[in-house]
């Protein structure tokens, strides 16, 4: 008999090959879909809005057949009548959200994966809670966040996800099913009350309550009662937050504290009746007469899941944790300045520290601002989308958050070729809302150059982006700008323009342009000039402000355009980003704009001495 002998080298090669073949043989390719909301443009040709006032509608990716139905008033009345439900006199039927979900079962999916493409999963529902009468009416909703924190960090391994079955209120009416269980809470104890059952997953109990349809509806339309759970999410890290309307994290105990990061359950409890203004609208900034507009710029926070390690801390302290220290600084400045607007200028998220869940990072980043009910805008940096969510997915999430001014332009693309988040925000006179006092431009400066041999380094704002904002300005914006008084215009982006290097004057050879602040590191502007400064000049922009270079915090008045423009850095604020070059203490820049005389004032504050201003100047 012929015997074949394999060398050790061949055996080492054969083992991973067999593993790959096994996964392929299983034939299961799992497409990961983040638990975020999608945004679609409403192309309503009858809209009376200006060209720059784009209308958007929100669509949840978790809602399936029953959730996308449009319910007519007569149909709702008929369903209520057939189920013997009398509507409370305080509830307007046209505001009933019949697509709102209730959760009827819960379970886990345990998977084996290879790289980031293939997963083979087995489902483990709470079999004791399987409700046959609901079969065909419910939909499965997977929370695609690996509780174990393995997926994305290893080439192969075991991952685990939470999922739930849900049914819409409208589908329950149609089914006329009585006596069903729905999720009402999570608890670290298994004790249950009357008509309740609880099921343990990892270290938490999920509590389900038995209801009749009448009981469920009356409870959820009464604003004075504790609304049922309509959605669920998982967030990671002991410092995670959920500032969204109707959402609350159960922080008494984590779902699991045995893996990479502790995981926490966040529950949404929203009423069925949602009158106009219930969901946070796109905020319109109205400035009272005689009041200045104050902006706090937060540049390069570099946060991640969990507390993270400090990088290049200066001055050095013991046991420094990056994100908590950064938040302490941010909270101090927000409390001192009481701003009217906060602008995040990129690299809010450190992608390689958010591989498990970028949503956890992003929600805690914006929490201090949302909690203070401050309108805020955001642009992306080169690190934000290097975690679990792509740029488009991050933008979908940000668009729908409370007090967010973030918008999509009609040309923003999922492939980032145009960038995502190119938009314009105007500030209006509160006593005369048609009076435009200020205009702010927000642009996506992309990431890394795609023509590395010709233009190595970082990418740039494309010519078509500049053309877009110029076209909006020429077709609509300029009509609203008064000519009999000052008008303030500013632009915000992440990567600096090439003109940030204009130390030497272009118009007065041998002289230097005015500069205030620290020039401590080489400016990482793109090697290609897309002509943005000229466009900004044509738009009447007086000041631009960016991030990216953590140790540069100067404002430079360039004379490369027809009119002098101040080019400013925000200065790195986050302890999770570099700050070398001899030691650089984290800082935050503030702008104070006087609409009456057209003056812009700016200063900065240091982490160690936030009560003190420095580098004060007037433009």
Model description:
With 619 residues, the chain is of the alpha+beta class. Helix 8 runs parallel beside helix 9. An 8-stranded mixed β-sheet has the order 13-17-18-19-21-23-22-20, with helices on one face. It folds into 2 domains: 37-44 and 53-269, no CATH class; 293-618, Purple Acid Phosphatase, chain A, domain 2 (4-Layer Sandwich), CATH 3.60.21.10. Strand 24 (587-594) and strand 25 form a beta hairpin. Helices cover 18% and strands 27% of the residues. The N and C termini lie far apart (91 Å). The chain is built from 9 helices and 26 strands.
Might you state the CATH topology name of the largest domain? Answer: Purple Acid Phosphatase, chain A, domain 2
Order of neighbouring strands in the sheet with most strands: 13-17-18-19-21-23-22-20
Largest sheet: 8 strands, mixed
The percent range for helix content is 10-25%
- Tally the helices: 9
Question: Can you tag this structure with a few keywords?
Answer:
single chain; 619 residues; alpha+beta; 8-stranded mixed sheet; 6-stranded mixed sheet; 9 helices
Outline the fold blueprint:
Layout: H1 8-26, E1 37-41, E2 56-60, H2 73-82, E3 101-114, E4 118-125, E5 139-143, E6 156-168, H3 169-175, E7 180-187, E8 196-201, E9 204-211, H4 213-221, E10 229-236, E11 247-249, E12 263-269, E13 285-287, E14 293-298, H5 322-337, E15 341-345, H6 358-371, E16 376-379, H7 391-399, E17 423-429, E18 432-442, H8 463-480, E19 488-492, E20 515-516, H9 532-539, E21 543-546, E22 555-558, E23 565-569, E24 587-594, E25 599-606, E26 613-618
GO molecular function: phosphoprotein phosphatase activity
Keywords: Signal
Domain Calcineurin-like phosphoesterase: 293-551
């Amino acid at each position: 008999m012929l015997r074949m002998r394999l060398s050790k080298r061949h055996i080492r090669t054969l083992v991973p090959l067999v593993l790959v073949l096994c996964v392929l043989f299983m034939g299961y390719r799992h497409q990961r879909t983040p638990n975020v909301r999608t945004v679609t443009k409403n192309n309503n040709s009858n809209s009376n809005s200006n060209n720059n006032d784009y209308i958007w509608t929100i669509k949840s990716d978790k809602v399936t057949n029953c959730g996308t139905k449009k319910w007519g008033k007569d149909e709702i009345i008929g369903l209520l009548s057939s189920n013997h439900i009398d509507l409370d006199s305080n509830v307007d039927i046209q505001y009933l959200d019949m697509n709102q979900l209730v959760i009827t079962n819960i379970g886990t999916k345990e998977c084996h994966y290879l790289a980031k493409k293939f997963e083979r999963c087995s489902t483990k529902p709470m079999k004791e809670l399987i409700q046959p009468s609901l079969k065909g009416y419910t939909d499965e909703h997977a929370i695609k966040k690996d509780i174990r924190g393995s997926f994305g960090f290893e080439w192969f391994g075991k991952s685990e996800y939470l999922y739930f079955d849900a049914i819409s209120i409208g589908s329950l009416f149609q089914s006329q099913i009585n006596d069903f269980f729905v999720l009402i809470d999570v608890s670290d104890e298994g004790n249950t009350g009357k008509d309740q059952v609880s099921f343990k997953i990892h270290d938490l109990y999920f509590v389900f309550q038995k209801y009749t349809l009448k009981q469920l509806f009356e409870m959820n339309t009464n604003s004075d009662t504790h609304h049922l759970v309509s959605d669920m999410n998982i967030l990671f890290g002991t410092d995670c937050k959920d500032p969204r309307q109707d959402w609350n994290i159960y922080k008494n105990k984590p779902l699991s504290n045995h893996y990479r990061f502790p995981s926490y359950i966040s529950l949404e409890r929203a009423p069925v009746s949602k009158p106009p203004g219930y969901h946070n609208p796109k905020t319109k900034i109205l400035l009272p007469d005689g009041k200045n507009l104050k902006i706090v710029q937060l540049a390069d926070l570099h946060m991640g899941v969990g507390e993270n390690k400090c990088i290049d801390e200066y001055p050095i302290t013991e046991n420094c944790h990056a994100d908590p220290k950064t938040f302490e600084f941010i909270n101090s400045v927000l409390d001192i300045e009481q701003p009217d607007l906060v602008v995040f200028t990129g690299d809010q998220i450190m992608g390689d520290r958010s591989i498990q869940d970028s949503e956890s990072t992003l929600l805690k980043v914006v929490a201090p601002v949302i909690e203070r009910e401050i309108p805020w805008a955001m642009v992306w940096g080169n690190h934000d989308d290097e975690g679990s969510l792509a740029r488009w997915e991050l933008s979908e999430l940000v668009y729908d958050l409370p007090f967010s001014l973030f918008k999509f332009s009609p040309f923003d693309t999922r492939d980032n070729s145009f960038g995502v988040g190119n938009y314009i925000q105007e500030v209006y006179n509160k006593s005369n809302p048609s009076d435009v006092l200020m205009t702010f431009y927000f642009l996506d400066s992309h990431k890394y150059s795609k023509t590395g041999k010709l233009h190595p380094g970082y990418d740039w704002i494309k010519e078509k982006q500049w053309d877009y904002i110029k076209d909006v300005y020429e077709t609509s914006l300029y009509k609203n700008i008064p000519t009999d008084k000052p008008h303030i215009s500013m632009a915000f982006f992440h990567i600096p323009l090439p003109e940030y290097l204009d130390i030497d004057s272009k118009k007065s050879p041998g002289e230097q342009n005015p500069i205030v602040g620290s020039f401590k590191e080489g400016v990482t502007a793109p090697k290609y000039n897309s002509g943005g400064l000229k466009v900004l000049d044509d738009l009447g922009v007086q000041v631009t402000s960016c991030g990216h270079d953590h140790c540069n915090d100067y404002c430079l008045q360039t004379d490369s355009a027809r009119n002098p423009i101040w080019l400013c850095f925000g200065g790195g604020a986050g302890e999770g980003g570099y700050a070398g070059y001899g030691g650089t203490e984290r800082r935050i820049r503030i702008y104070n704009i006087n609409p009456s005389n057209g003056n812009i004032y700016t200063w900065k504050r240091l982490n160690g001495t936030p009560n003190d201003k420095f580098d004060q100047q007037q433009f």
